[in-house]
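FAQ

Q: What does a record look like?
A: Structure on top, sequence underneath. For example:
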């Protein structure tokens, strides 16, 4: 493949319900879409960075600059044997995995479309045709509102509930959830809101038989997580601090976690996600696919990723309507009554793009090449 041009689009989409984590509340998403073009075909990717550098160091504006000035020039006009060439071509850009991953994902989609095969097949997925789904529920204004939302999602068939926690919204909230829903698959996500000094407090969560506690300590830490895991019965799941397959090897060697969340953007695209998946599988560590409030493009990419063999736990891949009144793909991503999403056999990521709607919500556009 020879990439002839790359178009960046920044779209603005209001959420149907605010989403709050330990580092803030989000009401709308500004998302960078990446379209790569070659020989009359286009592939699409999504940059999963937030509007602010709170989840990690990336945000919408930084991703645009990194893509335009650094990542895109390294692939533009090159003869690529496959999309797997993209990661090493941009690897000397320190960090900025979400920007690089959005470009790499678009080229995987392009290659799949060129070859007339589904993206999940191109990346070596398809271990399951039905992707088990869970939901991530943000911090609410009251516990009663949280309980009502959980009930609604369970009625929709979702197989696992994840709730966000932070100091002051943790043990007592989880207790209320467990009292109301004693047998559901439940996990708690702290988004790095605690320190090792909170270990005794976090041990109180052991009584609620959670599937996991996700990233309780610093976003770039592995060592303190190993110390905390030794004190907890509940498995720790690492998210923010696992950016490469090598990080996963280190965490596994130190017994810092029992599970790993793989986010396509956080690790820089499908190539590194697959390597990380393989490292975890070889060590007997299950993985699952995390979400970043993606539009339909990123959501469809997550569905393909979650079809790899070791994605044995329900991920944060859920229906479009949980987040958007109208998605940018047709049809929107939908879940079945049993809380699963079916793989699609159309070429590429499997859904048509709603170009008219994308144009109507685009606030910035730039083509390179």
């Amino acid at each position: 493949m020879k990439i002839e041009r790359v178009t960046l689009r920044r779209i603005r989409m209001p959420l149907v319900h605010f989403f709050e984590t330990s580092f803030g509340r989000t009401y709308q998403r500004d998302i960078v879409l990446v379209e790569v073009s070659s020989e009359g075909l286009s592939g699409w990717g999504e940059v999963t960075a937030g509007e602010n550098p709170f989840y990690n160091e990336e945000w919408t504006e930084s991703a645009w600059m990194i893509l335009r000035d650094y990542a895109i020039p390294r692939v533009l006009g090159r003869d690529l044997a496959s999309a797997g060439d993209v990661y090493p071509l941009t690897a000397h850009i320190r960090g900025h995995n979400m920007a690089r991953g959005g470009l790499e994902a678009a080229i995987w989609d392009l290659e799949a479309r060129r070859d007339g095969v589904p993206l999940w097949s191109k990346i070596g997925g398809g271990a399951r045709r039905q992707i088990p789904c869970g939901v991530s529920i943000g911090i609410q204004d009251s516990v009663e509102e949280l309980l009502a939302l959980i009930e609604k999602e369970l009625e929709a068939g979702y197989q696992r509930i994840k709730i966000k926690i932070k100091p002051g919204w943790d043990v007592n909230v989880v207790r209320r959830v467990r009292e109301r829903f004693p047998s559901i698959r439940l996990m708690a996500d702290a988004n790095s809101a605690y320190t090792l000094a909170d270990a005794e407090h976090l041990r109180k969560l052991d009584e609620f038989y959670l599937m996991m506690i996700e990233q309780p300590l610093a976003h770039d830490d592995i060592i303190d997580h190993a110390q905390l895991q030794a004190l907890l019965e509940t498995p720790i799941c690492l998210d923010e601090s696992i950016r490469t397959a090598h990080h996963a090897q280190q965490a596994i060697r130190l017994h810092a976690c029992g599970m790993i969340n793989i986010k396509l953007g956080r690790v820089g695209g499908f190539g590194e996600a697959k390597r990380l998946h393989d490292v975890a599988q070889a060590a007997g560590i299950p993985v699952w696919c995390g979400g970043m409030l993606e539009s339909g493009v990123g959501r469809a990419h997550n569905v393909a990723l979650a079809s790899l063999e070791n994605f044995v736990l329900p991920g944060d891949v859920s229906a479009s309507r949980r987040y958007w009144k109208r998605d940018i793909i047709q049809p929107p991503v939908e879940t079945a009554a049993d809380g699963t999403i079916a793989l699609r056999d159309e070429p590429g990521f499997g859904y048509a793009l709603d170009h008219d709607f994308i144009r109507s919500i685009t606030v910035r556009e730039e083509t390179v090449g």
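Q: Is there anything notable about this one?
A: The mean pLDDT is 97.
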